[in-house]
Amino acid sequence: MVSELKIEYANHPVRLKWHRLRRQLSDPLFSIDVMRTGFALGASMELDLRVRGDGGFVVLHDEELEGETTGQGRISAKSLNELRDARMRDGGTALTFSEDLASMLQSAHPDALLQFDMKDDFEAIGGKGIAHLAAHFQNMRASVIVSGSCLDLIIAVKEKLPHLLRGIDPTDKLVDIYQQEGLKAVEKSLLADLGGPTEPDTIYLQWSLLLQAARDGLDMVSLCQSEGKRVDAWTFTLTSPAGGFSDAEWHDFSALMALKPDQITTDEAPAMARAWSKRMAG
Question: CATH fold of 6-46+100-280, please?
Answer without folding.
Answer: TIM Barrel (3.20.20)
